[in-house]
Amino acid sequence: MDIDLITNILYAMVRTGTPLLIVALGELICEKSGVLNLGQEGMMLMGAVVGFIVTLSTGSLTLGFLAAILAGILMSLIFGVITMELSANQVATGLALTIFGTGLSAFIGTNYVGKPITGLEPIDIPVLTDLPIIGRMLFGQDLLVYLSLALFGGVYWFINHSRPGLILKAVGENPHSANAIGLPVFKVRYLAILFGGAMAGLAGSYLSLAYTPLWMENMSAGRGWIALALVVFASWKAERVLLGAWLFGLASILHLVFQGMGFSVSPNLLATLPYLATIAVLVILSSNQNSRLVAPISLGKPFYAKT
Amino acid sequence: MKRRQFHKLLAGVVAGAMLGLSVPAVHAEEPLKVGFVYVGPIGDHGWSYQHDQGRLSAEAHFGDKIKTTYVENVAEGADAERVIRNLAKAGNDIIFTTSFGFMNPTVKVAKQFPNVKFEHATGYKLSDNLGTYVSKTYEGRYVAGYVASQMTKTNKIGYIASFPIPEVIRDINTVQLALAKYNPNAELKIVWVNTWFDPGKEADAANAMMDQGVDVILQHTDSPAAMQAAERRGAFAVGQASDMTHFGPKAHLLSVVDEWGPHYINRIQAVMDGSWKSSAMVEGMKEGAIVIPGFNESIPADVTAKAKELIAGIKDGSVYPFTGPLKDNKGEMKVPEGTKLTFADLEKMDWYVEGIKAEIPK
């Protein structure tokens, strides 16, 4: 394996991990507030199709990304109203949201299948891009990859070092106590849900505007579900979400590179590698913790304010 | 009260999801009713899309004389049986089921409705009112392999493969046979992605191969993502199932397109005439089932001319890639001099031809 190949593998690793990272960060915040939204896949697809349509008709990638974020927010608002105002089961509502998003995105995207657009191009940061091995990986990416790193930094700081982050966690652990000391449980959960939707929409548009600049039905191909699993295996820690997303990206790429190099390992086995490796590493990391449950305690339970 | 509101909302949500699956209807007097069952969305721009194009061209051909109904996104398995039975109950005179996994459900329903005609694509089970049809995609791939052998500068050709089933292995072999004949220095790299459709993964596979020096990419998966990736990096690619020119105007060498229209028109006509008989139909370039709509202008004229010659040869039978002597990639003689593999042999193919430096995944 020469240095160029390693450079390229690391570059592709980050690109492949980026959509997972963005969705998973959104879901992480959402779950920290005690809300489990299984609608990631549907919200991603809506973000992908809306972002694509807006970019195609306006010619502006920026507007496309913004519209995708808005689409994700609207989708998550549906989820929020149903689970918060009507206290519906979060799992069932989330699944319905995925089915709804998959169908609706296919419906409004019918006339846009196969239309060409110019996707988001990578921006090389001068000098730094030429660093050996990690240069292209960290400094030769497109804007959204840089944004995903900033988002990671923001989420990490927010959860671990900020007062609003503490409130978020309090609401997720015990909404009744939080309510009793006067914290706005509903507002916090709503904001967390909407943030999750915005991230899913953005990740969807990363697929349709940067990763593979085209719209195809069901093009997220299960990435929303992988991101959901990532959050669990990362035991709700932002830094492990990043690690997991990139690890998954790395294993997905290696599986393809090894085949091209003629390794006689079964591709079926290699195909399971991303899942196995990611789970193994994150499980080993989590096993060192004290026996306290790592999941937000009220995850998935509806909250009734006045009982 | 709250719960009821929720149910209403949920019903709205589900109804919204169903919008994407609506069934079109064409009104006419006493038309022949024709049903289609697709495994994917008609917007996949690949397999199901091409079958639907076939349906549309039958509609255009017969006008008011037929009424077509299709159901898309039908999962292979128990649900397929229900869908097929519903189409039969609804009075369709002939029903086309267009994916391998619909075989057993189609057989079952065909038994229950002896007066309805059934045709199952890519299967092998027949009965009095059930026929099969399949197209010889390898004919197009042979031409693609020839063009690739002439266009590569690095002598590395990439092949994105889906699942190790005979159809895919056969087509990989066809490409290798074309390479061996027209450019023995060219090496075929095969990457299995274990999916028919995942744009992200297909693009990753294309990029991973280009990182390793591949400059022409062929694919046996359904999305145009590899074509796009090739366009971005100045490589060449061959389109699959439908014409993929507009995904990579510079990269696109040619597309091997399944054209189902002629088959559907023929068979519907046969039902109208009362001449329909169950049979296992295998159709290729000669019957117009496999077409190559155009060649990129960047291909040198002599290469295009030779490719057209090959197409003509395939049509008249003088060019047939699976003609002995053929060895497998371990050196064992598989097809002795003077014999040819039959289509039945090809449908069971589980070995790589000489020159492929890889093993078939088990």
In short:
The complex is a heterodimer of chains A (307) and B (362). Chain A is mainly alpha-helical and 307 residues long.
Give descriptors for this structure:
heterodimer; A: 307 residues; 12 helices; 0% strand; globular; B: 362 residues; alpha/beta; Rossmann fold; 2 domains; 14 strands
Describe this structure in words.
The complex is a heterodimer of chains A (307) and B (362). With 307 residues, chain A is mostly helical. Chain A has one domain (3-292): Orthogonal Bundle (ABC transporter involved in vitamin B12 uptake, BtuC). Chain A has helices at 3-32, 40-58, 61-85, 90-109, 134-139, 143-161, 163-173, 175-180, 185-211, 223-233, 238-260, 267-287. With 362 residues, chain B is of the alpha/beta class. Chain B has 2 domains: 3-135 and 260-283, 3-Layer(aba) Sandwich (Rossmann fold), CATH 3.40.50.2300; 137-257 and 322-346, Rossmann fold (3-Layer(aba) Sandwich). In chain B, 39% of the residues lie in helices and 19% in strands. Chain B has helices at 2-19, 47-62, 78-89, 103-112, 137-151, 166-182, 199-211, 225-232, 261-273, 301-316, 343-346, and strands spanning 32-37, 66-71, 94-97, 117-121, 130-135, 156-161, 187-192, 216-219, 236-241, 252-258, 280-283, 290-291, 326-327, 333-335. In chain B, α2 (47-62) crosses α9, α5 runs parallel beside α6 (166-182) and α7 (199-211) packs parallel to α8. The radius of gyration of chain B is 22 Å and the shape is globular. The termini of chain B are far apart. The model of chain B is unreliable at 1-28 (pLDDT under 50). Chains A and B meet through α1, α4, α11 and α12 of A and α1, β7, α7 and α8 of B.
